[in-house]
Design goal:
This protein is an alpha+beta fold. The protein starts with a strand and ends in an 8-residue tail after the last strand.
Amino acid sequence: MYHIQYLDKKTIDYFNHKLDCCIKDKYRYSENRVQTVNGFQTPNISNDVSIKIKKQLLKNIFKPSDISHLHLIRYNKGGRQELHTHPNEVYSFILYLNDSDGDTVFLFEDRTIFEKPKKGKIIFFNAKIPHKAKTSYKNKRVLVGALKPVEFVLK
């Protein structure tokens, strides 16, 4: 599964504001992640996000209760994400909160896809697909999440 949609400005603004607040309160929200290099990543914030916002985020593809975790990430200049998968999840997603560089690279068995960070673009994908974020020089901002749905409801 690999699916791209675009979200409305209001939802993007919500997560950008939330990321700014988390950055200001680094002591409470900082988390060391092996995959995130030269960046700031929150621990799981899914309990801090309302059902209404989760519904807007998931666009009727998944249910809010399918979310197992959400993390906000800001890549500093030179920040990147190492190659990884999410072995304990079924699906994952990346939501770009700003236009930036540092493409996300998905390594399928038969091809490689490079996704340009575009504000509002959300990519849902099988969590077993190896992926990474190339080095960013423009302070890229993203929301990432993992899902354990009972069923896939793409309309």
